[in-house]
Amino acid sequence: MHSTARLTHLSSPLPVTRLQILARGSSATPLAAPRRYASNAVSELPTSPSTRYLKPIYDFSAHTQSSATKSTIALGDEYLLPVYARPPFVLSHGRGSWVWDADGRKFLDFSAGIAVNALGHADPGVSEVLQQQSSTLLHTSNVYYHEWAPKLAQLLVTLTNKEGGLGYATGGTSPSSSAAKQGAKIARKVGKDRWAAATGGKVDDVSCPKTRIVCFENSFHGRSMGALSVTSTEKYQLPFRPLIPGVSVGKLNDLECLHRLITDDTCAVIVEPIQGEGGATAATEEWLRALRKRCDETGTVLIFDEIQCGLYRSGNLWAHSAFPIDCHPDVITVAKPLANGYPIGAVLLRDTIASTMTPGTHGTTFGGSPTACAVGHHVLNRLSDRVFVTHMKEMSAYMNNRLEVLPKWFPATLQPHVRGRGFIRGLGFNDVSHPGEVVQLARERGVFLLTAGKDAVRLVPSLNVNKEEVDIAMDVLEGCLSSLRA
Hints:
Helix content is about 35%, strand content about 15%.
């Protein structure tokens, strides 16, 4: 049976139908110039930690704030829900990998809006598309066709066919016949369809047992009730329980648990090939292969959440693109970098899965936004350009070379292995209090980093970051590690 991914349009980044698109330069105190290394991105690495940033360069205490900054923070404290512990400054503008606050301080952003700004801040091309499209059709709803949703859908599907994913091998033109036959909201419907076909029952029979969902420890899939139900982290779930029932939780890369977790009653398994919020931990090829095999044995829909690790952040189009097709999923979710910060998300599905979604089975008001799709089409064309991908792979390899020496230089502080791939990297710490402290120390030295899980610092820069910027970030990180309190 032929298998392709296709596309329609939705409202939240949960897997729903065949690739659904969801809508939803300045003066400053400069950072010190980085140490100069050879122009070859993989040669002449430093032999000892940088000592340039042992002390902070910025003071964020209240007496350093301008009246405008104080006023904005006070207004936010009064009218915004206090669900984020924001640092005490106000960002005003950015360019590329850099942002400035309202008081003129300059920061190198290695958080990229939580892995969103693939092309950095204030990208001229993105700005131009936004301006042009918003002056013609800003919003139409899914009731009508418009130019950009089909074009973006086509680009996502054809790139997946070419670069690997959803049963297509890298460089292939058709999926494996065995993979094509295998075919979470949509997964619930698929599960009921499969149960009815096997038993002769009705798809709307409330006694259908094929409704269970499997997820994994340290996952993060979102904050809606459905997504939160498969985000198995206590601090996220506890305030909102009871959640959706019928969810079983396994451990990433644990082969022994798969047979027990995934049964004939399981309709869906959802997993991040590289966990983002959970610590930048990557699933192994061996484990993904076993997971795929068990899903095939039980007629379970396998969903890869590539919202953070997809769209070239791992070095390939999808984090699973580099793996053989017997490790591939049935469904891919994607969002963060697709429109470089303009709200959008998409879901790609094999035809065998998408066929269950017919007119009326799903809908959304903001899905398939002309503006979001126009920007997404522009961004994806640029991210997939071979010159861009080559540069990104060179820069991520260089950053990784610098990261790999840190556990050797700071063995008492850091766990021995750097996590992740490409430009989604994590440093594990032996003391769980240290990641938050390092993020704060880096901010005081002009670099934005993120924590990940309980024990890691995450680096997710813009994908067009250059070597000088990588060197600055690494020099600052080395200074932070040297400055940690024992």
